[in-house]
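Side project, low priority. Logging it here so it doesn't get lost.
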Amino acid sequence: MGLIIGKVDIKVEIYSSVDIFADDTTLSASTHWNDIPSMVHDINCDLAALNQWSIQNKMSSSINDEKTKFMLISGKRLEKKILEKGKMDIAVKVDDTQITEVNCQKLLGVTSDNRLNYEEHIDRLCRKLSKQLGLLKHISPYLKKQQRELHFNSVIKPTMMYGSVIWDNCNGECFQRVLKFQKRAARIILDAEEMAPSIVMFNTLNWLPFTKESLIKRIMLAYKRVNSAYNTPSYLNSLLARNSDRHSRNTRYSNLNMLCPTYNRKTCRRRQNLHCKNNYRLEQIRFER
C-alpha cells in the first residue's frame, strides 16, 4: 500500500494497532480471552475500512485475501482455557471471504507462532545456517583464515544474530542448536579437527558464544532505554517502563529500576526486579571485532 520512497498515510478510523510498511500492513489487537469474539468483530470492521480505502484511492486492487493471513496468539495456558470454554466464532473476513488462519507467520524476518516459542523460527534459521556453512566449507580450501573469518562476519553471523533480542527467550535446546552451528563455523575457519574444544577455538578467534552475545544485546537494549542520550521509540519505552514512570517520588533507583510485568501470584511467588546500575560499564565487555 504505497511506494517505498514515500510514507503511507491511511486516513481511516480503526480500532487495531497498525504497522504500515512499504509493501504490506499489519493489524494487531489484544483483549481478555473471554472477549475474543468482540476483538474479531473490531478487526473485521478495520479490514472493511481498509478495503474501502483502497478502492476509493484507486489502488490497483483491494485487499488480497489470498495473501492476507491471521493468527490468534494465546500461549499454552490460554489455549487450554479457550478450548475448555468451547468453540468460538473466530472468522476474519474481507468482503465475505474468510481469511486463512495460520499457526506461524514470518514478519520482518522473524517467524512467530501462536505460542511465541519461536521453534519454527529456529528450524528455518538452522536450515539457512546449514546451507551457508556448507558453502563456506566448500570454498574454504581457496581462502585464507582471515578471508574465512571475514565471510563469516559479513554473511553468516548477521543471519544468526538477526532479531535475537526477540526470539532468544526460546528454550535451551533451541539455543544449543544455534550454538552448534557457531562451533561448526569455528572449526571450518580454523580448519580444526572434529573433536577440537570449542573454548580453545573461540579464544583463538576472539569470539563470544552465541548465548553470551545474545544476552549482551538484551543488556544493551535495556541500557539504551535507561540512558536518556538514546532516543528509544515509544513502544520500547512502554514495554520497559521505569519506576519513575509510575510515581513522582525521587528515590535512589527510580530512574534505573524497571517495573515488573504482571504475573500470577499463585504460580510466581517471588518477584524479581531488573536493575541497571550506574557503575555498569558496557566497554568492560569483550566484543568481537
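Brief comment: Residues 1-6, 267-289 have pLDDT under 50 and may be disordered.
Revisit when time allows.
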